[in-house]
């Protein structure tokens, strides 16, 4: 029998989970700093909901099944459909909403560096704000988190574009609505395949050679000023100019750069889209998101302005590992309690209980050990202090306490532990 986890899935031993919890807690703390509130939904959703929201590629990757009543269900591939369902079903919600979640998501897709078939993802969304201040704030949130992990502007870059601008450029090229959809899906492959492959994909979807060349030529635009020269004061251009002012107000303009190749493949994106990368581009995107004002229309509801991003744990953990930034993730225990004789076990448990009642974390050893072994075990548990019950002190109803950080020893009366 093969005892490995299912292909593409992961086991988390305690050391692994401490790293995962460090990522979770950092995401949570940043979310709370910006006033976001946490939500969650079932890991299983209606297959119809996921398919109506997702693009064709994502629909093919959904883990789906029928339950015992014949209902078509699926493991969530992303959180946005579930978020939309919550907003749709609760008409009492007061806009705007600033919500976040850390769901586990599943996609059956080809695995590569930074990509598995399950991952945890920090989703942050702002619902009910039309202004591009929402996009700027979400990018500020993501940058604050990256900074908290010890990453600086030398380590990552956020790139953005506008689906609205791309649509305006496509209209200048006389693309039909279907041709635009094809162009968005194909251009999302930029950087993953060569331009020749992009051309072949566009040709397979029926675009003529002139339109194909014009679309590929757009990717040669390097500066937003070139966009302004082409489109003038279009709605998309004015939106980006406003967005750039908000970036300056958040103090993050140096981290964020325009890149026409950022289009995001999902069809419901309507405005500014963005992705974050390791600056050396040694992996896929760290995070990605954008404005999706038409999602609620797709689901048959009244349109609601919305912006969000997803930030996965797999690529992030690889980058932290690569930069050797682990260290803050290991949880510290306040006290480790050990004893040199089995006759002291009950007293050690009483001391541990007293300390826990005071809100401290305590690891109780379960068998007798020599002092050297107790200190070694305590060090492995990353304890601040070690309490040792040994005959030399216990004859006077005392214990030895070792400060593990400063290597200082002291003696304390057992009765002192039980005083309020």
Description:
This protein is of the alpha+beta class and 420 residues long. 40% of the residues lie in helices and 21% in strands. The protein has 17 helices and 17 strands. The protein has helices at residues 14-33, 47-53, 56-61, 80-89, 133-148, 163-172, 177-187, 195-204, 209-218, 224-231, 235-250, 295-298, 313-322, 345-357, 371-380, 391-394, 414-417, and strands at 37-38, 44-46, 64-66, 72-75, 97-101, 104-106, 118-127, 156-162, 256-258, 272-278, 287-291, 306-312, 333-339, 362-364, 383-389, 398-403, 408-413. Strands 1, 5, 6, 7, 8, 9, 10, 11 and 12 form a 9-stranded mixed beta sheet that branches. It has a 5-stranded mixed beta sheet with strand order 14-13-15-16-17, with helices on both faces. A 3-stranded antiparallel beta sheet has the order 2-4-3. β13, α14 and β14 (362-364) form a beta-alpha-beta unit. α1 runs antiparallel to α5, α5 runs parallel beside α11 and α8 crosses α9. The protein is elongated.
